[in-house]
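Recap for those who missed Tuesday's class. We walked through two folding examples back to back. For each one, the amino acid string is listed first and its predicted structure tokens come directly after. Nothing is annotated here on purpose, so try labeling regions yourself before you check the end of the notes.
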Amino acid sequence: MAKKGEVKILHPDWCKACGICVMVCPMDVLALESSEIKIVNGEDCIGCNRCELSCPDFVLKVVENSEEKTVTG
């Protein structure tokens, strides 16, 4: 099963629109629109943390998306 995650924009006012996070995302989750970072395909995030680790301004945070199913029986 593929790893899932969720990227969050914690500090949008800190973003300088450098585009590094957009370039390093393997799933095209982020985009620059009107010099602002936007989450455009959030459901495709795999939680790789590349965007968070590459952001020089600490704008983004990736959290693990816990979609584990509980087995009862």
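Example two. Treat it independently of the first, because the proteins are unrelated.
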Amino acid sequence: MKVRWTRESLIRLREVNSYISKDNPQAAEKFLDKIINLAESIKENPEKGRIVPELDFHNINNYRELIITPWRIIYRIEEQKVYILSMIDSRRNFEDIILKRLMRN
């Protein structure tokens, strides 16, 4: 399997990295490495992440997530590829975030 980062996910990754870097550049670099390594590990076992509960509630079960507290890495498996779709702060309301993003597009 190949792991592909969407434009949205790369934007979120940069935002998180910039935010952490303001206070602690070394911590930001370590965190970035953790995120990338976790995302890349999906290719070994793409179904290791849980189905996103908020979407599963609406019978949408083709999206999965991995968690690095407080971040949720949202991804989808399609054919022989894993698409990293976004990173969402778990302290925020997932449904509000998704709705806003859908309205923008």
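Answers for example two:
The longest strand covers residues 81-89.
Helices lie at 7-23, 25-41, 53-56, 94-104.
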